[in-house]
Design a protein that fits this description.
41% helix, 26% strand, globular, alpha+beta, Aminopeptidase, 7-stranded mixed sheet, 15 strands, 342 residues, 8-stranded mixed sheet
Length: 342
């Protein structure tokens, strides 16, 4: 069997391949590629491998992200791959071909690559990553099994967390789902405050509006907590192939005592069960050897701590070092400025 690289795969073939792949996920769909194409600070990369019969053997989407435009963009360009590549029947020849083609192209566009895994790669597959120059490191995800009964799920929630969910209800905090694009502005405002407080970058509101337009309500769900009619907390999720992915979440600090961050995940579990989803993917939970408050928070909802790891490759060590120093100084300066203006 011989293989051919394809950069312009038919959308229907692409969608069908992802839909039917055992690890198929929203982040490797043509719709996400289109979102990247329409986002200023992301340059999409896509490659497919075809066999002699013009059948898809593997696909990979990456988003090359830049925090700054122009010259500064060179020092912040990183390539992120979520849930990929997808390879038919664990064919290591196809996997190697995809990784080599990816590396050949992206090394001129990004200083760093990160593969966020959604499953455990087999040892022979890890070896292909290593052979191509990628280093594996341990990294946790937390997975909630929604096939369990409501009582089983509730019993796995930490006692303190259960009490806080009860308090949220007692305080009058309500759970709901947004069904109109115009409401996205209010939830984005929450995320913006949360990410600014943490000193982390966040996509523009336009990015999420594009996600809404391309994925629709079937795949892009925004859950909210309300108090006296005001939206005080939110969780942006992506839904695909029996899995709900926790994407972005947060709440206003002034409303912490209304417990929106406790109420929302629990009700999303229940919503997922009612709508036939089998897994809630809580997302990244840090490295095993480092304390991580986000992991502690997520684990109080139960679930399985899965060490599915990540693959990383620094394409340009000098630019990487300069970029890290520049980002450190930028954050320091920004924090000093913010403190002065308070």
């Amino acid at each position: 069997m011989s293989y051919l690289i394809n950069y312009n795969l038919d959308k229907n073939k692409w969608s069908s391949f992802v839909q039917n792949h055992p690890h198929g996920n929203i982040f490797q769909t043509p719709e996400i590629f289109e979102v990247y194409e329409l986002t200023k600070k992301i340059e999409p990369f896509f490659v497919a491998v075809m066999n002699d019969d013009d059948e898809v053997e593997g696909v990979l989407i990456a988003g090359i992200q830049k925090e700054h435009s122009g010259f500064l963009g060179i020092f912040s360009a990183r390539s992120v791959i979520d849930g990929g590549p997808l390879v038919k029947d664990n064919n290591i020849e196809v996997l190697e071909l995809i990784l080599k083609e990816y590396k050949k192209t992206v090394k001129r566009k990004a200083i760093y690559s990160l593969f966020r895994n959604f499953w455990n790669w087999k040892d022979n597959e890890k070896e292909i990553f290593h052979k191509t120059g990628f280093e594996y490191e341990d990294h946790f995800n937390i997975l909630i099994n929604l096939k369990k009964s409501n009582d089983e799920l509730w019993s796995e929630v930490h006692t303190k967390r259960r009490n806080e969910i009860r308090r949220a209800i007692k305080e009058g905090t309500k759970f709901n789902i947004l069904n109109d694009k115009k409401d996205l502005k209010a939830t984005y405002k929450i995320l913006k405050e949360v990410y600014q407080r943490a000193g982390l970058p966040l996509h523009s509101q336009t990015f999420f509006e594009t996600v809404y337009e391309k994925l629709g309500l079937e795949h892009f769900k925004i859950f909210i907590a309300q108090y006296e009619g005001e939206i005080i907390g939110t969780m942006f999720t992506l839904c695909f192939n029996n899995t709900i992915y926790d994407w972005y979440a947060g709440s206003y600090k002034e409303y912490y005592k209304k417990y929106p961050n406790d109420l929302i995940p629990w009700h999303v579990f229940l919503w997922g069960k009612e709508n036939g989803y089998k897994t809630f993917d809580f997302g990244g939970a840090g490295k095993p050897d480092k304390p991580y408050g986000v992991r502690d928070y997520k684990l109080k909802f139960g679930g399985e701590l899965a060490n599915i790891g990540r693959f990383e490759l620094i394409h340009n060590k000098w630019l990487m070092a300069v970029g890290r120093l520049g980002m450190f100084l930028y954050k320091k300066t920004k924090k000093i400025f913010q403190n002065k203006t308070k």
